[in-house]
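I have been asked to look over a protein record a colleague put together. Alongside the sequence sits a line of tokens, each denoting a local backbone shape. Please read both lines and tell me whether the tokens look consistent with the sequence. I do not need a full report, just your reasoning and any doubts. I have pasted the whole thing underneath without changing anything.
>
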Amino acid sequence: MSLRILITNDDGVDAPGIAIMADIAHTLSDDVWIVAPDGNQSGAGHRFTLGRELHFDRRDARTFAVIGGSPADCVVAGMTHLLGDRPADVVLSGVNAGQNLGDIINCSGTAAGAREGALQGAIGIAMSQGINYEHGREVDWSNSIRHGTAVARAVIAGAQGPGTYFNVNFPFCDPDTTKGIAVVPHQRFSRSPFRYYPSDNDGKFFIAIPETPMPLDRAADFEVMRRDGYVTVTPMLLQQTDVSMVEKLKGTMAL
């Protein structure tokens, strides 16, 4: 039986990256569905739209936009309703326009799509195409186009059990010079990278990332993708409990 694949993203159903992801998915299976937000949901994290009605905009037989919905909403709607009694085996989230590295994954709607996929029982894979922001914000998709299928196959083949999802980042180097796939931890920053950032409009401001917190670990995703030119794959646990701390604190707390 062919893999059943569900695609979502946080850039919106009409974003170029989701078309690239669909091309990747169709090399793996002929049973591909797309359920994605109708507009940009970058930074939405794992937000659910609770207490407010949502509805579908059906684009074709297997493509649906969720009006006002988040990536997590889309995965739930796809896995528990649209796909009927056979949920997807694999949830692919992306390809995002811009890297999702380090602690930024905690707010990433792209990562959340893959995480919710894994929570729903699928292999969840988030994919992002890195951008060299020093040269502007234009996205060169050539690396994800060239290597996306091979990376997806490798991750699916290596996935073990329902407790993990995967965060993938493609470097912004020429695909011919990409060094390979590196399985690495994500960068823990010294502090949150998000900051208050003043606007040119009086009295208004942005929440933004004006600079990358230092130092950076040469063995973690940020430097291995950006500096070393590898496609980075980071397995992420759904179980977030600090098990060692549980053992350390047992019996130490009382009312």
